[in-house]
Structure formats: structure tokens, C-alpha cells
From TrEMBL:
CDD domains: Endonuclease_V (cd06559). The keyword Transferase does not apply. Keywords: Cytoplasm, DNA damage, DNA repair, Endonuclease, Hydrolase, Magnesium, Metal-binding, Nuclease. Mg(2+) binds at residues 34, 104. DNA repair enzyme involved in the repair of deaminated bases. Selectively cleaves double-stranded DNA at the second phosphodiester bond 3' to a deoxyinosine leaving behind the intact lesion on the nicked DNA. This is Endonuclease V. It comes from Bacillus aquiflavi. It comes from the Bacteria. Its main location: cytoplasm. It catalyses: Endonucleolytic cleavage at apurinic or apyrimidinic sites to products with a 5'-phosphate. The record marks 74 as: Interaction with target DNA. The keyword Disulfide bond does not apply.
Length: 224
């Protein structure tokens, strides 16, 4: 299974473009995507929640979710294969199609540059950004802590290549880890993430709301 997954990742990687395929004023709707899991009778179930917001007003436009049994085991480095079926099912329920998707997870900041935000882009056909709460350590490389001010960042350089960015969205709060998914550059990814920060969380609004929805839905479904 891992060999097959690896071949698919290697096939997709040359198609990744870390450059904007859009004009910034074209971004009107942004979707936050997150998943949560639970076990019932030795069977793993999952839910994917997507929350679409208006990028300019930050108003919630739509919320959808899907759930089901998870048949792909967790294999480090191949998380996208486990999550994609539910993500695709959930996207199909959207009435308002986003201009950009923001994932609770990594994109280019991945062992083979194929985190969920990057891999999923090929099925969504939209620009994507990865936003992770914790650091994925690659080749023993640690991140450098940015200055203690909102908007401060340090690039994550591994073997002279920039994989992503450690971004402090709020003063006196732990940083997050931003990486391009696909069809967007790192500067624009950082700018869009910062434009979606409010006083309620270090996470951008779409990701935070999707994260809250997954906890709510998981609580409801796991008690059925």
C-alpha cells in the first residue's frame, strides 16, 4: 500500500506550482477544512467539516459535513489517502464554491511536499493553503521561533529549500505553521492567513471554525 501511495505522490509532485494562479481581489470565499476521528467497536469513523466564510466580511456563508467509516490505516506521510474520500464527499455538498481552501494540516511542509493541502488541490482544482498547529519535523530540522509580535515569521529551510513558514499570528501566543498547498505562493499564503486572524484564536477563522465543527459533529455522532 505504501509503495502505491508513494508512486502517486511522486507522480503528482511535478504538477505542484508554488505561484499564484489568481489575482488577490478574486478571492471572495474561503473554506476551512478539518477532520476528526473516533473508534466504535474497533472500527475507526471520521467526519470532515467544511466552513465557508466571506473573505472580506468574515461572515459564515455555509457549513457542511460528511462522515463514515475510515478504511485506510494511518501511515505517516500518507495521511491524504486516509482523508481524501471524506473531503471529496463533503465538497460535493457545498452550494457556495470557495475560491480557496485552507486546511488544518500541512501542504508543501511534508516529507515529499505532499501534505493534505497539496494533495487535495488536484481534486478541488482550487488554490490551497496548509495551516498546522504543530510542527512536522523533517530531516531533523527544527524551526526558528519568530519575534514576539503579530505577523512575525521565520522561513523553514530544509536543505536550502523553503518548505513553509513559522508564523506568529498573535503576540504572546504560540506560532502556527503555514505552507503552500498548490497554485499559491508563500507570501500570499501568509498574507491571507493573517487577514483571517481575529482576537479569538491564533488560527485563521476558516480553520478554527472547521476545527470547532469537527469537535461538535464528532460528539454528536460518536454517541449514536
Amino acid at each position: 500500500m505504501s509503495q502505491k501511495f508513494l508512486e502517486i505522490q511522486n507522480e503528482l509532485l511535478p504538477k505542484v506550482k508554488l505561484e499564484n494562479i489568481f489575482k488577490k481581489d478574486e478571492i471572495k470565499l474561503i473554506a476551512g477544512v478539518d477532520l476528526a476521528y473516533w473508534d466504535v467497536n474497533n472500527t475507526t469513523h471520521g467526519t470532515c467539516c467544511i466552513v465557508v466564510i466571506d473573505y472580506h466580511t468574515k461572515e459564515v456563508i455555509e457549513k457542511v459535513y460528511s462522515y463514515g467509516e475510515i478504511t485506510i490505516p494511518y501511515i505517516p506521510g500518507f495521511l491524504a489517502f486516509r482523508e481524501l474520500p471524506l473531503i471529496i464527499d463533503t465538497v460535493k455538498k457545498l452550494i457556495n464554491l470557495p475560491d480557496l481552501y485552507m486546511f488544518d494540516g500541512n501542504g508543501y511542509l511534508h516529507y515529499r511536499h505532499m501534505g493534505i493541502a497539496t494533495h487535495a488541490s488536484f481534486f478541488l482544482n482550487k488554490p490551497t493553503i496548509g495551516v498546522a498547529k504543530s510542527y512536522l519535523k523533517i530531516q531533523g530540522t527544527d524551526f526558528m521561533m519568530p519575534k514576539n509580535q503579530a505577523g512575525a515569521y521565520t522561513d523553514i529551510n530544509i536543505n536550502s529549500e523553503v518548505y513553509g513558514r513559522t508564523l506568529r499570528t498573535t503576540k504572546n501566543v504560540k506560532p502556527i505553521f503555514v505552507s503552500c498547498g498548490n497554485w499559491i505562493d508563500l507570501h500570499t499564503s501568509t498574507e491571507i492567513v493573517m487577514n483571517c486572524i481575529n482576537k479569538e484564536s491564533r488560527l485563521p477563522i476558516p480553520v478554527r471554525l472547521a476545527d470547532l465543527e469537527t469537535h461538535k459533529v464528532r460528539k454528536q455522532l460518536s454517541h449514536l
